């Protein structure tokens, strides 16, 4: 599974990506919305969860590689998530801090959105965003999403108010000229 955008290539992550993955997941600033930096063990678990998703679902969070340098600068992809009692399909995005604010998250996430509506029988694509995560909300809005509801998760011992952003297939089709593929 690979997706190409103007500047980026998305592909499955492997053990070789552990250092680049750790650069994101052990950064306390990047991980504020996840209640702090991950330990080395939590990074390993995260990678194994994505590899289980590739095998079971055919998708997961993929490595985002800067084509010009070959460097993995982030993760972006599609996962199955729960919101209250519902299972939803979500686009997720986490990037190394050194590469923020250059449009990479939006470029990768828009390509994943277009891949998801093209490849999967979805009515809606979601983004679960913690209520404090303004950067993520703005990416969701730029993906054509609106807020559907609020909900609370319990993660790492903390109650976390969240917003459920989503874009419908009908709205995505109306935005066709802006699509990446
Ligand atoms: C969320 C995240 C992926 C955004 O990455 P990014 O590469 O900076 O985003 P982009 O450059 O593609 O920006 C796209 C839009 O997002 C918005 N945005 C990005 N960072 C922002 C910030 N700190 N504050 C407000 N808006 C922000 C802007 O509206 C931007 O549009 P613009 O180019 O017109 O300004 C990045 O901040 C990140 O990795 N955060 C940590 C992990 C995380 O919380 N992921 C989301 C979990 S739900």
UniProtKB/TrEMBL annotation:
Lineage top rank: taxon: Bacteria
A GO term, aspect molecular function: acyltransferase activity, transferring groups other than amino-acyl groups
Keyword annotations: Transferase
Domain N-acetyltransferase: from-to ranges: 8-170
Record flagged with keyword Transmembrane helix: no
Keyword RNA-binding: no
Coiled coil residues, start to end: none
PANTHER family associated with the record: GNAT FAMILY, PUTATIVE (AFU_ORTHOLOGUE AFUA_3G00765)-RELATED-RELATED (PTHR43792), N-ACETYLTRANSFERASE DOMAIN-CONTAINING PROTEIN (PTHR43792:SF1)
Protein name: GNAT family N-acetyltransferase
Source species of the chain: Microbacterium aurum
């Amino acid at each position: 599974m690979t997706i190409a955008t103007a500047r980026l290539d998305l592909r499955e992550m492997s053990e070789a990506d552990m250092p680049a993955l750790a650069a994101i997941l052990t950064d306390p600033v990047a991980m504020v919305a996840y209640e702090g930096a991950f330990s080395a063990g939590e990074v390993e678990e995260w990678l194994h969860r994505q590899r289980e998703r590739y095998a079971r679902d055919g998708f997961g969070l993929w490595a985002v590689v800067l084509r010009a340098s070959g460097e993995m600068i982030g993760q972006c992809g599609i996962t199955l998530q729960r919101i209250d009692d519902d299972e939803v399909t979500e686009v997720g995005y986490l990037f190394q801090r050194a590469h923020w604010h250059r449009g990479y998250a939006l470029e990768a996430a828009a390509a994943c959105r277009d891949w998801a509506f093209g490849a999967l029988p979805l009515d809606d694509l979601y983004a679960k965003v913690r209520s404090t995560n303004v950067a993520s909300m703005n990416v969701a809005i730029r993906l054509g999403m609106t807020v559907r509801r609020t909900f609370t998760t319990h993660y790492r011992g903390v109650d976390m108010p969240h917003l459920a952003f989503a874009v419908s297939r009908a709205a995505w089709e109306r935005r066709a000229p802006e699509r990446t593929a």
